[in-house]
Fold Glycoside hydrolase family 127 protein.
Amino acid sequence: MPGPVKPVSQDRLAVQPLPFDAVVLSPDGVLGAWQQVNAAATLPHCIEHLEKSAALANMRGAAGLEVHAFEGFHFADSDIYKVLEAIGWEAGRSDVGRFLPFVDRTIQLLGQAQQPDGYLNSFYSATPEKQFSDLRWGHELYCLGHLLQAGIAWARTTGRRDLLEIGIRFAERVEEEFPPGGRLPVCGHPEIETALAELYRLAGEERWLDLAVRMVDARGHRSVGPDRFGYGYFQDHEPVREVRGATGHVVRQLYLAAGVADVYTEAGDTALLEALHRIWSDVHLRKMYITGGLGSRHRDEAFGDPFELPPDRAYSETCAAISSVQFNWRMLLLTGEGRFADELERALYNAVAGSISPGGTEFFYSNPLQVRTERDGEHEQAPARRARWYDCACCPPNIARLIASISSYTATADDDGGLQLHLYDPARITLPAATVTVATGYPFDGRVVLKIDGTLTGVLALRIPAWSHAFTLRVDGEPQSLDPENGYVRIAAMGVAQVELKLDTSVQLRQPHPHLDAARGCVAVTRGPLVYTLEQTDLPDGVLLEDFVLDASRTLVDAGRDAVLGVPLIRVHGSTRARPAEPYPDAAVNFAISDRISANLVPYYRWGNRGPGGMRVWIPPASR
């Protein structure tokens, strides 16, 4: 049972995805518990809001089942498809019988709304003369991409193909609309490229890979845009093979990068891989927040200049973090290098996890690293509190489909019988000749114990994250002294019954790059892969968040587990700094420091769950 990414060509892969059902996450772990909440709460919530938001009513109108004037964003069909995809992946890990009436009704509805020539889009169905007339903003190919991915999920986990066939008919209509030598098949919002590559992998028909290749080749010839944001917003400013870095709308950029990675995997061309490395380096070394969030410009949901990363103006869209997970996963498959797993983990445990409430029914669209105490939070895409839904609802169903399939991102295999473990969570991994049980309290506890029942014939590779300054390793009780290679320690696993890895998850202070002006002089607190944050609610009465300064000379300690949030806290010490009367005091003025006070920090992914209030990741030290 293949998962979301199942390459056909093995020639350019360093490691290969495991079957979707090979990894079963335990509900005792962070990721496994998240899957439980996703199935119990997030999926029903998404289904409810598809109706409330008029997305389904729009489709019924397109099918002629009711008189309905289109409501909402013209790409709302994609919300339906992402929810169907999420349920499809959930069907591969649990009983989804309670969702089947919705699934059956919705697939039947899509079939009724599909036109005789295969075209399917609820916004343009009433105006056939406008179909494919606005590739810049129309999102028709984008929506088709999500439809295909939903169909692929159901075909792979259950063998059900009716949704997939609807998507294929639409893809055939697109193929007719954009023949070789004709109009350039460039969608203003990339996504279709990776979906077509996956359709090729499932169906085995070269035509779909050829179409994906043509779409990648066509981009960069300025056929969409410039509009008010410029060609770079649409990644149509220069050919893919020539790009120097990441630009424009973040989600568009990384969805395209994921598609290019899929095309390279199947069709080759080292110029594409070189471009992917340039994009990755620009994103992760110069344009990424410490939480793994991406995008500093609200106006166009875009990357800023290098190190333009203001914490209080971080847009850091949830879908951007999800697209980072997807891009990094594909780069990991191609290279086997731990740095890609490190960044996947950073985004997953911070920017993605922080976007959703513990109950799974409230969401952030954007994910700032600082919320000022007096912020009103009225802006819809950047509220001070999570919302149950959004007019532009791309993020909630995107989270749902990622979490339903997250087990696919934990481990891989290679041609020599080896197993690579990338994400640590309690799990059972079933291989052809062995079962590996993973026990851990990660990410709060760095101890990971693997018990092997059967025989692993190859090398067992365990990731040593870049944030872990030390580790110990025991194989069948015997201490080992191994140096990591490309981010992994490698163990000859033949005959091994148990492996114990202990990562250093001690609390650390991080400082920003010297070019990151917006956080200069401040520090952030991390523990393992987790970024921590200070909330106004954890300061003594009368102490304003903006006045608190951290005593970096004192030890930061574990403060125990918070009963409400269910996560370990970190205890810090500091004081408050006096506020001047004027906004720009003389540089020679020294601000008075109050008596010492203490406060607890919470993991970033749990902030905002105890009512409104200020928050900050980057904290000024008293000595700076």
Summary: The mean pLDDT is 94. The longest helix spans residues 30-52.
